[in-house]
Amino acid sequence: MRWFLRLGIPLLILVGAIYAGLNYLRPVVVVDTVRRGTVVDAPPGTITVMAQQSPTVRAEVDGRVLRTAIKLGAEVKAGDLLVELDPASTLLQIERLEADLATAKRRLEVGPTGAQGLAAAQEALRLAEIDFQRGSVPEVALNAARREAARAEQAVELDRIRLEQDVATTSNELELARLRLKRMKIFAGIDGTIVQTLIGPDDQVSPGMPVAQINSRERRVEMLVSEEDVAKLKPGQKARVQFQPYPFERFDGEIDQILPPLDSGTQRYRVLLKVDIPQERLLHGMTGEGFVKIAEIADALIVPRAAITDEKVFVVRFGRVREQKIKIGFKSIHEVEVKEGLEEGDVVVIDGLDSLRDGDRVKTKPRPKA
Predict the structure, then answer these.
(1) Continuous segment of H or E residues that includes residue 129
(2) How far apart are CA 124 and CA 134, in angstroms?
(3) pLDDT for 370
(4) Residue 49 pairs with which residues in a beta bridge?
(5) What is the pTM of this model?
(6) Are residues 151 and 111 in the same domain?
(7) Would 10 be classed as within a structural domain?
């Protein structure tokens, strides 16, 4: 008997220690109980607040930044001067082109340089025609005079065209230089706030280079919804929205417009909402959650949305989790109606699902009360 006690007691202690160790190593999961209640069919979505317009201000010409009024967070109005490029070389170019244009115009007024030669050739032709009529010169001499007069006339016409082209070309160059001078001042295109500054004094810019970004004061509230839910939605339906910066407030809204999907990969559709909230409280980049109430049903079997992965849940029975396929009905932002697969009172895992496998032993703790 003594030998049994000497062996049995340590063995019991060892078994107890192993059991306690295994129990200690069990993962702890948060659980909730399946219950009955009223559930709404309310397709949920993720909310993002964005500026109605967010244009990038770009340079139109190259040059060195002479001065800039761009300051991060500054409020600007459409037409405010943001950047001025150094105009020195352009002003010199304009001055030179103005002088060249005046000279070209004077030359055109004076006329082609061969005008006197043309007059002489035309007079020689007139005399040759008279002499030919009298018979004092042969026809070959008359033809030579005609050719000379035609050559002189063509030379004068070509010279006149060249003078006109000089005036037109210089005028165009002058207009382009003046336009370049205007574009060396970069203005704000909208009322808004400067949210990005990309250049500073003495920086060199090139055409198309971004210099700043401005967010308009007007905001839009955009909700992303799944492809399976978008067919239920239409403009005018009521919505409820919660923004992350205001966790204890809910705001009423309605669908304004349904846009194409954000991308073909996720197939999440963009829904624009009108939300009853002061514009100054809508911050660019603010996020949140929202839902659109479609219908509701009473005495439905309800499970937390967090418990579901690919229409499956983990049910806890006798310390083990069992993977259970379910059939889903109405869905709201936090809860889902279960049509098949669960019973009232079942305990389901709502946190820690990623590390679980069917049959795992677990320790449970109840969902914290809101």
Answers:
(1) helix 115-134
(2) 15
(3) 58
(4) 221
(5) 0.62
(6) yes
(7) no
